Amino acid sequence: MSGNGVISQGLTRLNKPFCNYSSWMRRRQYEEVPDEFELPYHNNHQSEILDSSGQPVMIKIDVPVPLRDEPRFPKEKWKTFYSFVILVVNFILATVSLSLVHERLPDREKYGPLPDIVLDNIQQIDWALDVSEILIMIGVNSCIILIIFHKHRFIVMRRVFLLMAMLYMLRSITMYVTVLPVPNTTYYCSPKSNSTTPLLIAKRVFQLLSGFGLSINGKHTFCGDYIYSGHTVMLVLAYLIISEYSPKRFYAIHWAAWLNALVGIIMVLLAHGHYTIDVLIAYYVTTRIFWTYHGLANNSMLLKQSSNNYLGREWWFPYFRYFEKNIRGPVPRQYECPISWPRRFFSKLPSRES
Question: Which residues are catalytic?
């Protein structure tokens, strides 16, 4: 027998077991799984095998419970209510601070406006403050409409309430620790009472709340709330909300909101309603808090407090984790009618494909 014949016979014998094994595996692939293996997924699977002595051996396999299909963006209305309560408390705190600051206001007959590089070089225009507050109302109402029609309106409301609460709380502190002279020489300030009884403070707080903190309605007659500018806070915050939660393709709306904020701030300075430093601090504080909050909210890895996460050292980080722990990712820019019956009506209309 030649060498090639011997080699071919050896290869045939060697391949025969592998061929039998392959055909056996193909048959097993199409066989049905026995009924005894159809166990519930959430139970602990148990099976028996025999050891070398013929005794049964129990093997316990722990199968993890499947994760619940939770919504990525839960409404959590009760958290939204909590955030609104926090906002109301801090807004009242700011009005109480102003009521106390008014008594510590420097005498206008002795102390004139502080030197300011901007105010010293522009003529005072009293009606410009009314224009600024009208622009504030336009920006605020635009944000309200946007939030109402946003699909995840409760999440957006919750964030806006918390941001405003933090800004008002910080403002109540800064205006109280440093009281500046009135920058406007013609703005009316109520006479001092030279006493701060609880009843007097309550009356002033009610007067300020009834006017929503605006002077255009004649309710804001108490002076001293300069560091930092509340007008600038509302103008900048309105622009940030519109740019963050409105569709990206609506460039005209974004530019209009930006222009509304810019003109409003310019009008505050033209009216000498605030010093320039008040406006600069307000812009810096508002943008830093807004961008830091949303930077944390849009990155789930930053929700963990660690030695390397320096953003987690913010004083408000524990509250942030409580309100944002169930939100998974950036909030999509989706919109819907807030009333249910129009949605049901339009869903019943025949589509183009029907």
Answer: 231, 274, 278
